[in-house]
Amino acid sequence: MTDRLQKVMANAGVASRRASEKLIVAGRVRVNGKVVTELGVKVNGEDAVEVDGHLIPQKNAKVYFILYKPRGVISAAKDDKNRKVVTDFFADLPQRIYPVGRLDYDTSGLVLMTNDGDLANKLMHPSYHVNKTYVAKVEGIPDSHDLERLRHGVSLDKKHRSSAAKAKILSTDTKKNTAVVSLTIHEGRYHQVKKMFLAVKHPVKKLKRETYGFLNLDGLTSGDFRELSNQEVTLLKQMVEKK
Length: 243
Hints:
Elements: E1 2-4, H1 5-11, H2 17-25, E2 29-31, E3 34-35, E4 42-44, E5 49-51, E6 54-55, E7 64-69, E8 98-99, E9 107-114, H3 117-124, E10 132-139, H4 144-152, E11 166-173, E12 178-185, H5 192-199, E13 204-212, E14 215-216, E15 225-227, H6 230-239
Parallel strand pairs: 9-13
Antiparallel strand pairs: 1-4, 2-3, 2-5, 5-6, 7-9, 7-15, 8-9, 10-12, 10-13, 11-12, 13-14
Helix pairs in contact: 1-2
Family: Belongs to the pseudouridine synthase RsuA family.
Organism: Ligilactobacillus pabuli
Domain RNA-binding S4: 3-62
């Protein structure tokens, strides 16, 4: 969808349309790095519009964020029970964004947020094999046989079996009879990680997603978010363009 440049500026709250036209004619507006002085120019949500060197937000612009989701937050745009949802953290954003996939209510960790529906659909499709690493605190201490089962795949239900995964023990607590285990998978079935550990008789007590592809939570604490860099967005798109 394209709109006249002055309309986009007005919608972004820069100035009225007439005042925006004066800014354009005065050479104070750049589109994709180039000065624009003509009033008939049209732009879309992917164009970078700057006024006096400041990038203006566009409602149709594609945006990409990492959110460190706390426990007790729903991975959805809204909830019929009025519980806190991941989009509540982005209430001031002009764009309407959504989570890529889901994390359980009681699971914390990395959630990718965007309004780029095409990229989101590709990232969620299992054929693209986007690795996701979880750290789980489980009951009991898995032995080498349990880890091998996780690595080679276990039955999730009567119809589905998990694919090959990476699993390793990070720490153990013999007094409390618990262990912290890292598990890397590329699928995203409902309650998959919990079902995998349940299959080897080590129920999950606490779960956190630490990575999504090459993305991680470095520098973030629970409830924080940051925008992805242009390089990170490019790498994400390259991940799903290889197929």
